[in-house]
Amino acid sequence: MSAISANTVIELFNSLSATDQKLVKKYFAPKNNALVSVNSSSKRMQAPTPAALLQKHRLKHKAPAK
Q: This protein's superkingdom (predicted)?
């Protein structure tokens, strides 16, 4: 299996129709579980940092910061 670059994935994603883009986003990042978001203004894919994930977890479970 060969790896493809993130730019290739973004180009393929941007070539889809708006309806298909919505379906792809819904499949890969359901509501309240955005693992990867596509920033349409800069055309970059962004993965959340561990600190952001921890903050999201604390907010979800009302856990105080240590």
A: Bacteria
